[in-house]
Amino acid sequence: MNIVFDFGGVLFHWHPASFLARLWPQRAADEQAGAALAQDFFQNYSGDWGAFDQGLIDAPTVIARISARTGWPAEEVRQVVEAVPDELQARPATVALIEDLKAHGHRLFYLSNMPEPYADHLERSYPLHDWFDAGVFSGRVKLSKPGREVFELAQQRFGLPAEQLLFLDDHPANIEAARALGWQALLFSDADSVRPELQALGLI
């Protein structure tokens, strides 16, 4: 099988509510308040942040746009944008799952909504070329999930038919988009929860 991993929330830790509560204690007294801030900051990965994800604007521009839209000082917004790479720490259980899947002979790929500066950071910091045969970062191809086009591009780059791809992602909209194109897909919460599903498919 050919298994395609999302990155944020799957391979790499990403929890915006707790992230903003830690980074902006002056604005978010707890995780619940951090979740509300995250809605305004990241706009469910559409709007300003979606354009950054797609590589349509750079970091200074997304900082300026978020500051103008929300009224938050640009320096505070910059603090968040610059802190994201260090927040993207590999999840050990998912790394172990990757190693198990590779040991069972499966080919692994990735499809990630990721601004180009963060993609560069991950490539410098982790052995992506050892873990994966190939992958697609949204910021480099100017397309993002759940848009149909980025799945079609990924399928073309991987050189595989849809029915031979199994996608792991933590967002239901992305799972639905993959399935609509004929991919197999599993909604991911954590590695321990998805293992039984992979075992049921005879993959590990």
From TrEMBL:
<dbReference type="InterPro" id="IPR006439">
    <property type="entry name" value="HAD-SF_hydro_IA"/>
</dbReference>
<dbReference type="Pfam" id="PF00702">
    <property type="entry name" value="Hydrolase"/>
</dbReference>
<dbReference type="InterPro" id="IPR036412">
    <property type="entry name" value="HAD-like_sf"/>
</dbReference>
<protein>
    <submittedName>
        <fullName>HAD family phosphatase</fullName>
    </submittedName>
</protein>
<dbReference type="InterPro" id="IPR023214">
    <property type="entry name" value="HAD_sf"/>
</dbReference>
